[in-house]
Amino acid sequence: MNFKQQTTLNILYAEDDADDRSFFERALKEISIVTVLRTVTNGEELMDYLAKNYEQLPDVLFLDLSMPRKTGFECLGEIKEDKKLKHLPVVVFSTSFTRVIDFEQSLMNTLFKMGAHHYIRKPGDFEQLKQVIHQALIKTIEIRLPNGQQSIN
User: Fold this and answer.
1) What's the mean pLDDT when you consider all of the chain?
2) Band of the pLDDT at 98, cuts 50, 70, 90?
3) Which of 33, 72, 74, 79 might form a disulfide with 65, Cβ 3.0–4.6 angstroms?
4) pLDDT class of 145 with cuts at 50, 70, 90
5) Which has more pLDDT, 88 or 150?
6) Of 139, 133, 106, 110, whose CA–CA distance to 120 is shortest?
7) Terminal-to-terminal C-alpha distance of the chain
C-alpha cells in the first residue's frame, strides 16, 4: 500500500542499549516515512516522559522488554491501565527471549492480551531492521487512518 504522508510521525523508543538505539535511529533515517525520534533509556524514564507529555503523546512507542528500573512488561501494563495512555500504539521490539516457537507464541499472545499492537523480534541484519521498522510504522499509520484513507491527518 502506498501512503501519502502529510505530517511527521513522532516515535518514542524505550531502549537501554546504546548500540540498539543507534541502529534504530540510523534505520529510521533510511526509510521513506518522515519521523522524529525521542529515546528513553529505562522504564522509569519512559513512564516519567509519558506522564509529563500527556498532551503531546508520541504516535507510536517502540518498547524493549528488558530494561532497568522498570521492565517493558511493567510499563506496558501501566500504559494500558492509564486512561490517558491506553490508546498509545505500542510495538514491543525485543531480542530478550528464546526463539523456541511455542514460548515466543505464548509471549506474543500475552503481550497482545496486555494491549501491545505489534511484537517484533529485533533482527540482526540492518536491512531487515529497516524493513520491520517500516512495516510497523505502516501498521501504525493504518491504525490512525479512519475509513481506509491513505494519508495522515
Assistant:
1) 84
2) low
3) 72
4) low
5) 88
6) 133
7) 17
Looking at CATH, the fold of the domain delimited by 9-148 is given as Rossmann fold (3.40.50)
Please give the single-letter amino acid code of residue 10: N
Domain ranges of the chain: 9-148
Cell 514460548 sits on residue: 103
- Residue 59 identity (one-letter amino acid): D
Q: Is there a contact between 64 and 93 (Cβ–Cβ < 8 Å)?
A: yes
Q: Which helix (H) or strand (E) holds 103?
A: helix 101-114
Q: Provide CB contacts within 8 A for 22, sequence distance 6+.
A: none
> Kind and range of the H or E element at 19?
helix 18-29
Check pLDDT > 60 for residue 125: yes
Q: Is residue 135 classed exposed, middle or buried when 0-12, 13-18 and 19+ CB atoms within 10 A define those classes?
A: middle
Kindly state the helix (H) or strand (E) to which residue 40 belongs, with its residue range: strand 35-40
Mean pLDDT of 104-120: 83
